[in-house]
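Weekly sync, protein design subgroup
Attendees: M.S., D.O., the rotation student, P.L. (late)

Item 1: inverse folding check
M.S. brought a backbone from last month's batch and wanted to see whether the design step gives back something sensible before we order anything. D.O. pointed out we never logged the input encoding, so this time it goes straight into the notes. Structure tokens as presented (84 positions):
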């Protein structure tokens, strides 16, 4: 009797394990993709800001102040919304 019970339980356990494993793998993959996209966007934004700051370095004082303020606000916003 004990052997019959063991042979019927193993396939159910295996099926459940495969389902859980597939779901966890899918969730981790989606999480990695989102993190990768966020990292790529941050890198792109840093390059854009660097180019903009070098363009504005000869700009009049008032335009530089405005750009510096906008850049600082952008950095703060990115830091607050960054995944932890």
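Designed sequence read out in the meeting:
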């Amino acid at each position: 009797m004990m052997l019959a019970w063991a042979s019927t339980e193993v396939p159910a356990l295996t099926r459940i394990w495969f389902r859980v494993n597939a779901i966890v793998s899918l969730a981790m993959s989606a999480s990695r993709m989102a993190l990768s996209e966020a990292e790529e966007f941050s890198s792109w934004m840093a390059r854009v800001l660097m180019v903009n700051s070098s363009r504005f370095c000869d700009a009049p004082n008032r335009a530089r102040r405005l750009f510096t303020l906008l850049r600082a606000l952008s950095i703060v916003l990115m830091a607050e919304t960054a995944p932890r």
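Discussion: The chain has two helices and no strands. Residues 2-55 form the longest helix (54 residues).
Action: P.L. to compare against the previous round before Friday.
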